[in-house]
Design a protein that fits this description.
Blueprint lengths: L1 H26 L17 H7 L2 E5 L2 E2 L3 E3 L5 E2 L1 H14 L5 E5 L5 H6 L5 E2 L7 H4 L2 E3 L4 E10 L14 E5 L3 H9 L4 E5 L2 H9 L5 E5 H9 L4 E14 L2 E3 L3 H16 L2 H9 L1 H4 L16
Parallel strand pairs: 1-5, 1-6, 9-10, 9-11
Antiparallel strand pairs: 2-3, 3-4, 7-13, 8-11, 8-12
Helix pairs in contact: 3-10
């Protein structure tokens, strides 16, 4: 009996602690069976419809995928796709807030709830999948290296001890940092900065997605994509915040539906074919319905 009375204060303290934790959970809006609330909950379909806008991260300087046209409007392949998705989601393709990002800020903008979807030529990688959720792919891509036509780089071995320009936060930066430490990488935050540095001769080559380099070389005489494909064949897909399952599932269903009408190919014909011409086979780039 004495032991029971001696342990009674400890029981009271334990009960008080439990009640305090329960009250704290109640204050956070938790109940039995509820998931921990977080930023992902803010991008549910209902919330997007209530807001009347979808915030989409895009590029402003990666022609022909995401850029500002002569009137200052967002244009490009990714924009065509994003507008159709917004139309099907909210009933109006203009119900969108374009948020301009750089390669290195795409993940951060999702995690900090500044955007709902990233549609900025986003290559799917294992490292990125740990921080964001990718929907089904709509494009295939590999790395490439563009160089001056009068001094073409056709083999990676030619880059040893030389300066190669890359953009921070891209698969090109990761690939050359991991695989080729013998190459001197010159890094820039913005695509436009990297391109200008390359044109100024601050590097013997520029490494980027081959899809971008093919288009860039086609519109900039005097340059050639000497290394057209490097590393693995990857995919490009939209991305949402980690755990935003509702929006992710909707996007996947939408991409499957668009595949039935070959909409990605239609977007290619509108935004990419005028740039690529007959130099690129659309089948090498386009992914319909999320199926490779």
């Amino acid at each position: 009996m004495k032991k029971l009375f001696k342990s009674f204060p400890a029981l009271i303290q334990a009960l008080a602690l439990a009640l305090g934790l329960l009250a704290g959970a109640s204050g956070l809006g938790l109940a039995a069976g509820d998931e921990t609330p977080g930023p992902a909950g803010k991008s549910s379909i209902a919330d997007l419809k209530s807001r009347g806008k979808v915030r989409i991260a895009v590029y402003a300087d990666k022609q022909p995928f995401g850029y500002l046209d002569e009137s200052g409007a967002n244009a490009g392949f990714d924009i065509v796709l994003a507008k159709r998705i917004v139309k099907d989601l909210l009933g109006d393709e203009n119900a969108v807030e374009w948020v301009q990002v750089e390669p290195a800020t795409r993940v951060d903008y999702l995690e900090s709830d500044k955007v709902d979807i990233v549609f900025a030529n986003f290559t799917v990688t294992a490292a990125r999948k740990e921080r964001v959720d990718f929907a089904l792919p709509y494009m295939k891509v590999a790395l490439g290296v563009v160089s001056p036509e009068n001094a073409p780089i056709k083999e990676v071995s030619q880059l040893k001890g030389k300066k190669l320009i890359v953009i921070k936060g891209t698969t090109a930066e990761t690939y050359f940092s991991d695989k080729h430490p013998e190459i001197d990488l010159v890094k820039f935050d913005e695509i436009s900065e990297a391109v200008q540095a390359f044109k100024d001769g601050r590097g013997v080559g520029l490494a980027q997605d081959n899809t971008f380099l093919f288009a860039w070389a086609a519109t900039n005489p005097g340059y050639v994509v000497g290394i057209p494909s490097l590393g693995n064949l990857d995919t490009i897909a939209p991305a949402v915040r980690k755990g935003n399952t509702e929006l992710l599932n909707w996007l996947n269903d939408e991409l499957k539906a668009l595949g039935k009408e070959k909409f990605v190919r239609q977007a290619y014909d509108k935004a990419l074919a005028p740039v690529y011409g007959h130099s690129v086979n659309p089948g090498d780039l386009v992914v319909e319905g999320g199926k490779l």
